């Protein structure tokens, strides 16, 4: 591989890894999605967003525990999460969602 191709490849990889392509990855994406979910579910006891793709932003795990899910089926709870994060989800490979109500103890 010549010097020009090596440089171009490195620049492209740098953009992917650092999120400069317009797609947030890693900690930035986790923080952005956590903020969006906190705004949507202000009474949430737990909101956790983790990049489980090794930092590239392809796969996320989301956990939301809130009394605001009271009376909703699991499917409806997950739909709320999907609707809330629809703009972020379109740039992902996948998302794993876990939702529930706080313990009543």
Automatic annotation (TrEMBL):
It comes from the Eukaryota. InterPro entries: BolA, BolA-like_sf, Mt_Fe-S_assembly_factor. SUPFAM superfamilies: BolA-like (SSF82657). Pfam families: BolA. Belongs to the BolA/IbaG family. GO terms for cellular component: mitochondrial matrix. It comes from Cotesia glomerata. This is BolA-like protein 3.
